[in-house]
Every structure is written in structure tokens, then in C-alpha cells.
Amino acid sequence: MRHLKCLTLIAILMLGCVQSALRAQDLGNGPVNPPSDDPPYTIGSGWAQFSWTNGPNVFNVEGPYTFNASGPVTLDVTDWRYDGDRFKIFDNGLLIGTTSMPTDNGFTIFDDADAAFVDSRFSHGTFNLGPGAHALTFETILVATCYPDGVGNFRVESSPEIPSAVPVPTSILGGSVLLLSLLVLRRRSILAA
After folding, report:
1. What is the distance between the alpha carbons of residues 88 and 81, in angstroms, rounded to a whole number?
2. What is the DSSP letter of 1?
3. Helix, strand, coil tally for the chain in percent (to 5)
């Protein structure tokens, strides 16, 4: 019975991943693999806008923003203009995260994505991406009251290389195992006496 529950959970998770990928591909702007009509993005070029109409539960109208990263990068996403919008972010058709919960009280910030990004009333998020080809799409899942159309912003910056774990020299590891073995043998010999 326990095995059946585990298989059922795995099947549900796989179905959710497939549905997310299919939804991201059905944007009316071509497939996720970047065709020529999808907007390119240059890493480090600052904030870029994406927009939607007739939200919520719609993807950005521009199609996937595409770029290639030679190393790890950081993606920042923020709402602006009217607080109340929230986003799911997809990379190559896979959900990578959701922005924070916004307020929806009519507060506005125009033409300053940096200010909106640090203002807790606006939905925002930071996501780490690895090297490789990327195609970002944004699904608007909440909209500001009375504003079904809107604009959000994103930027991608290079991240410092994250150092890999420092390997433990095998002589230290081997010595530790040997020491532990000797202690166990010593304890047994004391208990046997």
C-alpha cells in the first residue's frame, strides 16, 4: 500500500511538470526553444519590461526572453506601476519560482524598477540560474484591482562563481576511519577483560 502511494505521488508530480511545460509552450509566440521572433536579452543590460493583457492567468505577450549564460546568473523580477500583480516565472518551460505576495492598495511607482524591487508592497523575487540557454516567460497570476493589463520588469546579472565543496584529503578521512576502528577494538577488549 505504501509503495502504491509513493508511485501515485510520483505520477502526480510528473503530470504537473508536463502540464507546466505544455502551458509555457502554448503562448501564441512560438515554442519555448527560441525562434527568431522571441526577444533576446543581454546579461547585465539592466531592467527589461514584460507585459500582459486580460490578466490574471496569462503569460507575457512578448514570448520567451532568451539568453545564453556562460556561468551562474541571478534573475530579479518585480512588479511596478500599480501594486497588486504577482508572477510565476518559467525557464525553458519549467516553473522556477513565484514572486512574493503583493499588497493591492493602489500604491504606485512609475519608471523606477529599482524602487519597486525593494518596496515590500510590490511583488518581487530573486532566482538563481545555472549556465546554459535560457528562455524566460512570466505568467501573471494576480493583477492589481481594476488593472487587468500591466507591465513588470526583470534583469539578469552574472553571479560570482560558487566554490565547490573543499575536498577532504583522503589521508585525513582514512586516518579518521582507522582511529575510530581502533577505539571500537580497544573498547571491546576492555569489556571482554
Report:
1. 18
2. -
3. 25, 30, 40
Helices (H), the chain: 2-25, 113-118, 170-192
Q: What angle do CA 175, 181, 186 make, to 5 degrees?
A: 125
Residue with cell 492567468: 57
78, 102 contact by CB (below 8 A) = no
Report the distance separating Cα 182 and Cα 177, nearest Å.
Answer: 9
Read off the pLDDT of residues 75-112 as tens digits, 9 standing for 90 and up: 999 998 999 999 999 999 999 999 999 999 999 998 89
- Structural domains of the chain, ranges and CATH numbers in brackets: 2-158 (2.60.120)
Cell of 19: 502540464
Amino acid occupying residue 88: K
pTM: 0.67
